[in-house]
Amino acid sequence: MKVVAIDDEKFILAELVDVLKETLPEAELLSFSRSSEAWDYIRNNEVDYVFTDRQMPGMSGGELGNLITEKYPHTEVFIMTAEPSATLRKEGIPLERCIFKPYTSKAILDKIQTKNLKPFHTNKVEEQKPVVKEVKEEKKGLFSKFFG
Q1: What is the DSSP secondary-structure string of the chain?
Q2: Residue of 8, 25, 27, 89 with fewest CB within 10 Å of its CB?
Q3: What are 60-85's pLDDT values in tens digits?
């Protein structure tokens, strides 16, 4: 079994790798700090599972997940995130494809053992930009509500 871990923050990536080694000791585990490097690897190698951070410079975890699902539907993609569920729903990311930080071996194992997961898919990037603006406006509205 091949597993790919991706996060642009090296300490978080190291933590993710440690948890994945503990959870899937028999797996061949590869880690990347850039989505583009991971995508280059995935295009040339069969991968069973991808665990990717959601927010990264360049290609986001959601964009990478869409590419992988489109080209390699057998590869299971999971987003590692600390984002609120509402934000993820607005972006069209199925919550069952999310593992919330701080993650544990149990959370990862529960996800990969779940049967009949919805396919990974997010809204297109063009559709996400207004969502980001909307979320910022919601936060601004809440701020002014409490702090005048």
Answers
A1: -EEEEE-SSHHHHHHHHHHHHHH-TTSEEEEESSHHHHHHHHHHS--SEEEEES--SSS-HHHHHHHHHHH-TTSEEEEEE-S-HHHHHHTT--GGGEEESSP-HHHHHHHHH-SSPPPP----HHHHHHHHHHHHHHHHHHHHHHH-
A2: 25
A3: 898 999 999 999 999 999 999 988 88
Structure token digits, residue 121: 């898919």
Phi, psi (deg, nearest 5) at residue 119: -60, 145
Q: 10 Å Cβ neighbour count for 109?
A: 13
* pLDDT for the residue 117: 63
Query: Right CATH number for 2-123 from 3.30.470.20, 3.20.20.70, 3.40.50.2300, 1.10.530.10?
Result: 3.40.50.2300
pLDDT digits (tens, 9 = 90+) for 80-123: 998 888 888 888 788 888 888 888 888 888 888 876 666 666 66
With pLDDT > 70 as the criterion, what percentage of the chain qualifies?
A: 77
